[in-house]
Amino acid sequence: MDNVDAQVLKKADEWLAAGQRSVLGTIIRTWGSAPRPVGSLVAIREDGLVIGSVSGGCIEDDLIDRVRAKALAYDKPQRVTYGVTAEDAFKFGLPCGGTIELVLEPVRRETRIGELVQRVGAGRQTLRSLDMKTGHVTLADGQGSDVLSADDERLISVHGPRWRLLVIGAGQLTHYVAQMALALDYSVTICDPREEYADGWMVPGTNLVRTMPDDTVVEFKPDRHTAIIALTHDPKLDDLALMEALTSDAFYVGAIGSQKNQAKRKERLVEFGVTADDLTRLHGPVGLKNGARTPPEIAVSILAELTGIKYGYRIPAPEPIGERAEIAAGCVT
Fold first, then answer.
1. Nearest 5°: phi and psi at 57?
2. Helix, strand, or coil here: 287?
3. CA-CA distance, 41 to 105, in Å (whole number)?
4. What residues contact 122, with CB distance under 8 A and at least 6 apart?
5. Distance between CA atoms of 70 and 184, rounded to whole angstroms?
6. Which terminus of the chain, N or C, has less C-beta within 10 A?
7. Residue 130: how many CA atoms within 13 Å on its side-chain side?
8. How far is residue 205 CA from its own chain's centroid?
9. 103-132 residue pLDDT tens
Protein backbone atom coordinates (compact mmCIF):
# COMPACT_ATOMS: atom_id res chain seq x y z
CA MET A 1 0.00 0.00 0.00
CA ASP A 2 1.30 3.45 -0.93
CA ASN A 3 0.81 6.68 0.92
CA VAL A 4 -0.97 9.47 -0.95
CA ASP A 5 2.10 11.53 -1.83
CA ALA A 6 4.02 8.49 -3.09
CA GLN A 7 1.12 7.82 -5.46
CA VAL A 8 1.39 11.40 -6.74
CA LEU A 9 5.09 10.97 -7.49
CA LYS A 10 4.51 7.64 -9.23
CA LYS A 11 1.78 9.03 -11.44
CA ALA A 12 3.84 12.11 -12.37
CA ASP A 13 6.68 9.78 -13.35
CA GLU A 14 4.31 7.66 -15.44
CA TRP A 15 3.05 10.75 -17.27
CA LEU A 16 6.61 11.83 -17.96
CA ALA A 17 7.52 8.39 -19.33
CA ALA A 18 4.48 8.60 -21.64
CA GLY A 19 5.66 11.96 -22.99
CA GLN A 20 2.95 13.98 -21.22
CA ARG A 21 3.72 17.29 -19.56
CA SER A 22 2.62 17.94 -15.99
CA VAL A 23 3.13 20.29 -13.07
CA LEU A 24 4.02 19.14 -9.56
CA GLY A 25 2.79 21.26 -6.64
CA THR A 26 4.16 21.17 -3.08
CA ILE A 27 2.63 22.97 -0.09
CA ILE A 28 5.44 24.93 1.55
CA ARG A 29 3.54 27.10 4.05
CA THR A 30 0.09 27.32 5.60
CA TRP A 31 -1.63 29.86 7.82
CA GLY A 32 -4.92 29.44 9.64
CA SER A 33 -7.12 26.42 8.96
CA ALA A 34 -5.45 25.02 5.86
CA PRO A 35 -6.97 21.65 4.89
CA ARG A 36 -3.68 19.87 4.01
CA PRO A 37 -0.31 19.88 5.81
CA VAL A 38 3.01 21.27 4.62
CA GLY A 39 4.71 18.89 2.19
CA SER A 40 1.48 17.63 0.61
CA LEU A 41 1.69 17.07 -3.14
CA VAL A 42 -0.53 17.47 -6.17
CA ALA A 43 0.26 16.72 -9.82
CA ILE A 44 -1.71 18.16 -12.73
CA ARG A 45 -1.33 16.89 -16.28
CA GLU A 46 -1.43 19.32 -19.18
CA ASP A 47 -4.95 18.16 -20.11
CA GLY A 48 -6.21 18.82 -16.57
CA LEU A 49 -6.07 15.31 -15.09
CA VAL A 50 -5.13 15.62 -11.41
CA ILE A 51 -3.84 13.33 -8.65
CA GLY A 52 -3.30 14.28 -5.02
CA SER A 53 -4.69 17.36 -3.33
CA VAL A 54 -3.72 20.58 -1.58
CA SER A 55 -7.24 21.65 -0.56
CA GLY A 56 -10.83 20.49 -0.63
CA GLY A 57 -10.92 20.88 -4.41
CA CYS A 58 -11.44 24.58 -5.14
CA ILE A 59 -7.75 25.42 -5.35
CA GLU A 60 -7.22 22.40 -7.57
CA ASP A 61 -9.90 23.72 -9.95
CA ASP A 62 -8.00 26.98 -10.32
CA LEU A 63 -4.69 25.18 -10.76
CA ILE A 64 -6.16 22.94 -13.44
CA ASP A 65 -7.44 25.92 -15.42
CA ARG A 66 -4.09 27.69 -15.22
CA VAL A 67 -2.05 24.59 -16.10
CA ARG A 68 -4.26 23.98 -19.12
CA ALA A 69 -3.65 27.57 -20.17
CA LYS A 70 0.13 27.08 -19.69
CA ALA A 71 0.03 29.97 -17.21
CA LEU A 72 1.72 28.16 -14.30
CA ALA A 73 5.24 26.70 -13.99
CA TYR A 74 5.46 25.98 -17.72
CA ASP A 75 9.23 26.40 -18.00
CA LYS A 76 10.53 26.93 -14.45
CA PRO A 77 9.46 26.65 -10.79
CA GLN A 78 7.03 29.22 -9.45
CA ARG A 79 5.58 30.17 -6.05
CA VAL A 80 1.86 30.90 -5.72
CA THR A 81 -0.34 31.80 -2.75
CA TYR A 82 -4.06 31.18 -2.23
CA GLY A 83 -6.35 32.65 0.37
CA VAL A 84 -4.62 35.87 1.39
CA THR A 85 -7.87 37.82 1.68
CA ALA A 86 -11.16 36.81 3.29
CA GLU A 87 -12.74 36.94 -0.17
CA ASP A 88 -10.14 34.55 -1.58
CA ALA A 89 -10.50 32.27 1.43
CA PHE A 90 -14.24 31.99 0.71
CA LYS A 91 -13.65 31.60 -3.02
CA PHE A 92 -11.13 28.79 -2.61
CA GLY A 93 -12.87 27.03 0.24
CA LEU A 94 -10.31 27.86 2.93
CA PRO A 95 -12.04 28.06 6.34
CA CYS A 96 -11.26 30.78 8.86
CA GLY A 97 -9.12 32.76 6.45
CA GLY A 98 -6.67 29.93 5.86
CA THR A 99 -3.79 30.51 3.45
CA ILE A 100 -1.72 28.07 1.39
CA GLU A 101 1.57 28.79 -0.38
CA LEU A 102 2.74 26.36 -3.06
CA VAL A 103 5.81 25.73 -5.14
CA LEU A 104 4.85 24.56 -8.62
CA GLU A 105 7.38 23.05 -11.01
CA PRO A 106 7.29 21.48 -14.47
CA VAL A 107 7.99 17.75 -14.35
CA ARG A 108 10.95 17.00 -16.61
CA ARG A 109 13.67 14.36 -16.67
CA GLU A 110 16.03 16.64 -14.78
CA THR A 111 13.53 16.83 -11.91
CA ARG A 112 14.58 13.22 -11.08
CA ILE A 113 11.08 12.09 -10.12
CA GLY A 114 11.74 8.51 -11.27
CA GLU A 115 14.83 8.21 -9.09
CA LEU A 116 12.94 9.71 -6.16
CA VAL A 117 10.14 7.14 -6.60
CA GLN A 118 12.69 4.32 -6.48
CA ARG A 119 14.32 5.66 -3.33
CA VAL A 120 10.99 6.13 -1.54
CA GLY A 121 9.87 2.67 -2.66
CA ALA A 122 13.00 1.22 -1.06
CA GLY A 123 12.10 2.90 2.24
CA ARG A 124 14.88 5.52 2.03
CA GLN A 125 14.04 8.91 3.46
CA THR A 126 15.22 11.38 0.84
CA LEU A 127 15.88 15.11 0.75
CA ARG A 128 15.03 16.61 -2.62
CA SER A 129 16.58 20.00 -3.26
CA LEU A 130 15.00 22.10 -6.04
CA ASP A 131 16.78 25.17 -7.40
CA MET A 132 13.99 27.73 -7.85
CA LYS A 133 15.81 29.56 -10.63
CA THR A 134 17.03 26.68 -12.78
CA GLY A 135 14.80 23.78 -11.82
CA HIS A 136 17.89 21.65 -11.16
CA VAL A 137 17.35 18.89 -8.57
CA THR A 138 19.68 17.02 -6.24
CA LEU A 139 18.79 14.05 -4.02
CA ALA A 140 20.38 13.05 -0.71
CA ASP A 141 19.64 10.70 2.17
CA GLY A 142 17.57 12.17 5.00
CA GLN A 143 18.39 12.02 8.68
CA GLY A 144 14.99 11.16 10.17
CA SER A 145 14.38 14.57 11.75
CA ASP A 146 14.54 16.66 8.56
CA VAL A 147 11.71 19.06 7.75
CA LEU A 148 10.68 20.93 4.62
CA SER A 149 12.28 24.33 4.05
CA ALA A 150 11.76 26.88 1.29
CA ASP A 151 12.91 30.34 0.26
CA ASP A 152 13.33 32.28 -2.98
CA GLU A 153 16.42 30.26 -3.89
CA ARG A 154 15.63 26.67 -3.00
CA LEU A 155 12.93 24.19 -1.93
CA ILE A 156 14.14 21.26 0.17
CA SER A 157 11.39 18.68 0.56
CA VAL A 158 11.41 15.45 2.56
CA HIS A 159 10.16 12.21 1.02
CA GLY A 160 9.81 8.67 2.32
CA PRO A 161 9.01 7.44 5.82
CA ARG A 162 9.37 10.14 8.45
CA TRP A 163 7.66 8.22 11.25
CA ARG A 164 8.63 4.83 12.61
CA LEU A 165 6.46 2.11 14.12
CA LEU A 166 7.84 -0.84 16.07
CA VAL A 167 5.32 -3.59 16.76
CA ILE A 168 6.05 -6.43 19.15
CA GLY A 169 4.40 -9.60 17.88
CA ALA A 170 3.72 -10.91 14.37
CA GLY A 171 0.21 -12.23 14.92
CA GLN A 172 -2.93 -11.68 12.85
CA LEU A 173 -3.73 -8.27 14.33
CA THR A 174 -0.24 -7.02 13.52
CA HIS A 175 -0.75 -7.81 9.83
CA TYR A 176 -3.61 -5.30 9.68
CA VAL A 177 -1.80 -2.74 11.83
CA ALA A 178 1.29 -2.96 9.61
CA GLN A 179 -0.66 -2.58 6.37
CA MET A 180 -2.51 0.48 7.62
CA ALA A 181 0.65 2.01 9.09
CA LEU A 182 2.44 1.68 5.75
CA ALA A 183 -0.42 3.59 4.12
CA LEU A 184 0.08 6.33 6.74
CA ASP A 185 3.76 6.74 5.79
CA TYR A 186 5.30 4.84 8.71
CA SER A 187 8.45 2.79 8.39
CA VAL A 188 7.25 -0.44 10.02
CA THR A 189 9.40 -2.92 11.94
CA ILE A 190 7.98 -6.12 13.45
CA CYS A 191 9.77 -7.86 16.32
CA ASP A 192 8.93 -11.46 17.19
CA PRO A 193 11.45 -14.07 18.40
CA ARG A 194 8.80 -16.84 18.17
CA GLU A 195 9.33 -18.96 15.07
CA GLU A 196 5.69 -20.04 14.87
CA TYR A 197 4.68 -16.40 14.29
CA ALA A 198 7.72 -14.91 12.59
CA ASP A 199 7.88 -17.65 9.95
CA GLY A 200 4.36 -16.76 8.80
CA TRP A 201 4.97 -13.02 8.43
CA MET A 202 4.03 -11.85 4.93
CA VAL A 203 3.46 -8.08 4.77
CA PRO A 204 5.73 -6.61 2.07
CA GLY A 205 7.39 -3.30 2.79
CA THR A 206 7.97 -4.10 6.48
CA ASN A 207 11.09 -5.17 8.33
CA LEU A 208 10.94 -8.33 10.47
CA VAL A 209 13.45 -8.95 13.26
CA ARG A 210 13.63 -11.99 15.54
CA THR A 211 15.59 -10.51 18.43
CA MET A 212 14.29 -10.20 21.99
CA PRO A 213 11.93 -7.21 22.41
CA ASP A 214 13.95 -5.32 25.03
CA ASP A 215 17.12 -5.56 22.94
CA THR A 216 15.16 -4.54 19.86
CA VAL A 217 13.76 -1.40 21.51
CA VAL A 218 17.22 -0.35 22.74
CA GLU A 219 18.75 -0.89 19.30
CA PHE A 220 15.85 0.96 17.68
CA LYS A 221 16.83 4.17 19.50
CA PRO A 222 13.25 5.51 19.73
CA ASP A 223 12.85 9.24 19.13
CA ARG A 224 9.88 11.62 19.02
CA HIS A 225 8.93 10.24 15.60
CA THR A 226 8.67 6.68 16.95
CA ALA A 227 5.67 4.65 18.14
CA ILE A 228 5.99 1.29 19.93
CA ILE A 229 3.07 -1.12 20.35
CA ALA A 230 3.12 -4.47 22.14
CA LEU A 231 0.62 -6.96 20.68
CA THR A 232 1.74 -10.47 21.69
CA HIS A 233 -0.52 -11.03 24.75
CA ASP A 234 2.59 -12.65 26.25
CA PRO A 235 3.84 -10.74 29.33
CA LYS A 236 7.32 -12.21 28.90
CA LEU A 237 7.61 -10.40 25.56
CA ASP A 238 5.35 -7.37 25.90
CA ASP A 239 6.69 -6.36 29.31
CA LEU A 240 10.29 -6.56 28.14
CA ALA A 241 9.54 -4.12 25.34
CA LEU A 242 7.51 -1.77 27.54
CA MET A 243 10.22 -1.55 30.21
CA GLU A 244 12.52 0.05 27.64
CA ALA A 245 9.87 1.87 25.57
CA LEU A 246 8.35 3.79 28.50
CA THR A 247 11.70 5.36 29.38
CA SER A 248 12.44 6.29 25.75
CA ASP A 249 11.54 9.36 23.69
CA ALA A 250 8.85 7.47 21.73
CA PHE A 251 5.78 9.68 21.23
CA TYR A 252 3.42 6.71 21.67
CA VAL A 253 3.69 3.50 23.66
CA GLY A 254 0.73 1.09 23.67
CA ALA A 255 -0.11 -2.45 24.70
CA ILE A 256 -3.01 -4.76 24.00
CA GLY A 257 -5.04 -6.30 26.81
CA SER A 258 -8.09 -5.73 28.97
CA GLN A 259 -8.31 -3.18 31.76
CA LYS A 260 -7.73 -6.01 34.26
CA ASN A 261 -4.64 -7.22 32.41
CA GLN A 262 -3.34 -3.67 32.14
CA ALA A 263 -3.59 -3.25 35.89
CA LYS A 264 -1.61 -6.45 36.43
CA ARG A 265 0.93 -5.34 33.83
CA LYS A 266 1.49 -2.03 35.60
CA GLU A 267 2.07 -3.86 38.89
CA ARG A 268 4.72 -6.02 37.22
CA LEU A 269 6.40 -3.06 35.58
CA VAL A 270 6.60 -1.20 38.88
CA GLU A 271 8.38 -4.21 40.35
CA PHE A 272 10.94 -3.92 37.57
CA GLY A 273 11.62 -0.26 38.32
CA VAL A 274 9.26 1.55 35.94
CA THR A 275 8.11 4.75 37.65
CA ALA A 276 4.53 5.95 38.09
CA ASP A 277 5.27 8.90 35.80
CA ASP A 278 6.51 6.58 33.07
CA LEU A 279 3.39 4.43 33.41
CA THR A 280 1.17 7.42 32.64
CA ARG A 281 2.58 7.27 29.09
CA LEU A 282 1.21 3.78 28.50
CA HIS A 283 -1.85 3.58 26.23
CA GLY A 284 -3.64 0.47 27.33
CA PRO A 285 -5.91 -1.07 26.36
CA VAL A 286 -4.37 0.17 23.12
CA GLY A 287 -6.51 2.07 20.61
CA LEU A 288 -9.64 4.21 20.72
CA LYS A 289 -12.56 2.72 22.59
CA ASN A 290 -14.99 2.36 19.69
CA GLY A 291 -16.43 -1.13 20.19
CA ALA A 292 -13.94 -2.75 17.79
CA ARG A 293 -13.98 -6.56 17.89
CA THR A 294 -12.38 -8.01 14.75
CA PRO A 295 -8.64 -7.65 14.01
CA PRO A 296 -9.21 -5.11 11.20
CA GLU A 297 -11.51 -3.04 13.43
CA ILE A 298 -9.02 -3.11 16.29
CA ALA A 299 -6.25 -2.07 13.88
CA VAL A 300 -8.37 0.92 12.81
CA SER A 301 -8.85 1.92 16.45
CA ILE A 302 -5.10 1.65 17.12
CA LEU A 303 -4.08 3.73 14.11
CA ALA A 304 -6.79 6.29 14.87
CA GLU A 305 -5.45 6.81 18.39
CA LEU A 306 -1.89 6.86 17.09
CA THR A 307 -2.83 9.59 14.61
CA GLY A 308 -4.50 11.67 17.31
CA ILE A 309 -1.49 11.51 19.63
CA LYS A 310 0.83 12.24 16.70
CA TYR A 311 -0.96 15.55 16.13
CA GLY A 312 -1.36 16.42 19.80
CA TYR A 313 -4.91 15.22 20.49
CA ARG A 314 -6.25 12.87 23.14
CA ILE A 315 -9.71 11.61 22.23
CA PRO A 316 -11.94 10.78 25.24
CA ALA A 317 -13.68 7.44 25.46
CA PRO A 318 -17.03 7.56 23.63
CA GLU A 319 -20.35 6.77 25.27
CA PRO A 320 -22.44 3.88 23.87
CA ILE A 321 -25.64 5.11 22.25
CA GLY A 322 -29.05 3.51 22.00
CA GLU A 323 -30.00 0.27 20.34
CA ARG A 324 -26.77 -0.13 18.35
CA ALA A 325 -24.74 -0.35 21.54
CA GLU A 326 -27.16 -2.92 22.96
CA ILE A 327 -26.96 -5.01 19.82
CA ALA A 328 -23.17 -4.86 19.87
CA ALA A 329 -23.19 -5.98 23.49
CA GLY A 330 -25.51 -8.88 22.65
CA CYS A 331 -28.43 -7.46 24.64
CA VAL A 332 -30.90 -7.29 21.75
CA THR A 333 -31.94 -10.25 19.66
1. 130, -30
2. coil
3. 11
4. none
5. 34
6. C
7. 30
8. 14
9. 999 999 999 999 999 988 777 889 999 999
